[in-house]
Amino acid sequence: MDVRMDMLQEENHVPVIHAMQGKSLKRLKSVVTCCVLGLCILAGFLIYLMVQGFMLYKELKEIYQVTDKIKCHPQINKDVDSNIYMAKPRAHLTGKKQYSYVSKDQALQWENSNGLAFTNNGMNYTNEGLEIPKTGYYFVYSQVTFRLPTYTAGKKSKTEHVSLTVKKITSKYPEPEKLISGAKNVNENESEGYRPIYLGALLLLEAKDQLIVEVSDIQLVDVTVEHKTFFGAFML
């Protein structure tokens, strides 16, 4: 009787053992499957990195080859720099006869197409000023030569205080904003009564900004020669 009971207990334990073994086997299969998938993903990622690295290597090699050619040929380097410069906005304006003397403190009028004057690559001259085509750093410069009437012998020499100011007109401010300015005294019996004022500065300007030049007395400006009075800007 006892022997039968033992046999029955052993027979009851066998299915339980098989069930536990089945669960363990399933878990093992799941772990193996996950490992295989992980290895496949890792292998694919490594292959992708190798392909990208090879493509990057080819691109860098081509860049180095072009750079070496430019270094070996100074003329190519000059042509590249020249083309980059020529494509940027720039303008040079020269003095012209002023037709308006309404007030002493007034913007000068400029020549923008004849002689040494020009406007290129989007830079426009409108309403007595230069209009900036795109945002960036610009070198802005201006020279104005002032001339007093000829000194007459026997009369006391006259001294005039003159000034030059470059201003910016923008929609952000209701009034023109002063950028750079300078001033000097002109004596009519010194240097034949001539006195040039030169200004230049590197400025950050925005598209649609307009630059104008104002002087203390527009009637004293000498515009007889192009190199005496001028105004310009170019993008760096």
Automatic annotation (TrEMBL):
Q: Which residues cross the membrane?
A: 30-51
The record's SUPFAM superfamilies line, in alphabetical order, gives: TNF-like
Annotated membrane topology is: Single-pass type II membrane protein
Q: Which PROSITE patterns match?
A: THD_2
Specify the domain of life of the species encoding this protein: Eukaryota
Keyword hit for Transport? no
The alphabetized UniProt keywords are:
Cytokine, Disulfide bond, Glycoprotein, Membrane, Signal-anchor, Transmembrane, Transmembrane helix
PANTHER family in the cross-refs: TUMOR NECROSIS FACTOR FAMILY MEMBER, TUMOR NECROSIS FACTOR LIGAND SUPERFAMILY MEMBER 15
Name of protein: Tumor necrosis factor ligand superfamily member 15
The organism of origin for this protein: Xenopus tropicalis (Western clawed frog)
Q: Which gene name does the record give?
A: tnfsf15
